[in-house]
From TrEMBL:
This is SpoVT-AbrB domain-containing protein. GO terms for molecular function: DNA binding. Pfam families: MazE_antitoxin. Residues 6-51 form the SpoVT-AbrB domain. NCBIfam families: lp_hng_hel_AbrB. InterPro entries: Repressor-like_regulatory (IPR052975), SpoVT-AbrB_dom (IPR007159), SpoVT-AbrB_sf (IPR037914).
Length: 80
């Protein structure tokens, strides 16, 4: 487990060290979720669909043919 101490800056700004940000896929412009658990502040990355498709856990398999068919079906729902 990576663990570091950081100083809280002006306006309570926290800078996430590069090695930790890279470990969890946080970069400039990333969205993170803050939550409070007891006396702890938890910071979790919110991954977008592109990040998940490239780096996220794979939960299903689909053939290219099925993918194309599904894509065309979904697109046809939005074409007027």
């Amino acid at each position: 487990m990576l663990e570091v101490k950081v100083r809280v800056g002006k306006k309570r700004v926290l800078v996430i060290p590069k090695n930790i940000a890279e470990e969890v896929g946080i970069r400039e412009g990333s969205i993170v979720k803050l939550s409070v658990q007891g006396k702890n502040v938890v910071i979790e990355p919110e991954y977008d669909a592109i990040w998940l498709s490239l780096r996220g856990e794979k939960v299903a398999k689909i053939s290219l043919k099925d993918l194309e068919e599904t894509s065309l079906e979904e697109q046809s729902k939005h074409i007027t």
